[in-house]
Write a structure and sequence with these properties.
Blueprint (H helix, E strand, L loop, with lengths): L1 H15 L4 H5 L10 H6 L5 E4 L9 E7 L7 E5 L2 E8 L10 E8 L4 E11 L8 E11 L2
Parallel strand pairs: 4-6
Antiparallel strand pairs: 1-2, 2-5, 3-4, 6-7
């Protein structure tokens, strides 16, 4: 239910940006921008897959709210599992300046995929370096 609400939210954002629903599903998300109110409503490090219901012709992307000091995402592909790994460093003590980051996964063949997100803290003073680990099932149709 929560994912449906998120997909509806993203579609509303597309409509507010002046594009129709059909073009929202096929948009170039590198240029997707949200206003400050919408940015504040997003959870830190939560992933949003665009389009919500991709097919094998779609360019699939992931939007994530980050603080702005994180490293680039490292993507890995092994069978139907997509690794999505990002490193942070809590030792930097930098103030969080929230922004959206878009990672392009690309086109995928029809099937079921597991998008495994891992956020790792590089701070050597902590004992558990994994801040967040989550798995999203991604269904790609023909």
């Amino acid at each position: 239910m929560n994912r449906i609400v998120k997909c509806i939210f993203v579609l509303i954002v597309c409509l507010l940006m002046g594009s129709g629903l059909a073009s929202c599903e096929k948009q170039d998300v590198e240029h997707l921008e949200l206003n400050e109110l919408e940015l504040n409503d997003l959870e830190l490090y939560e992933l949003y897959v665009i389009p919500c219901y991709p097919d094998s012709d779609d360019q699939i992307s992931v939007i994530e709210k980050i603080c702005g000091t994180e490293s680039e995402v490292i993507l890995s592909f092994q069978g139907n599992q997509i690794g999505y790994k990002r490193f942070v460093n809590s030792l930097m003590m930098a103030p969080c300046s929230p922004q959206l980051d878009t990672t392009i996964i690309g086109q995928l063949n029809a099937g079921s995929y597991q998008l495994v997100q891992t956020i790792i803290d590089k701070n050597h003073l902590i004992t558990d370096s994994i801040i967040l680990q989550d798995t999203i099932t991604l269904l790609v149709s023909d």
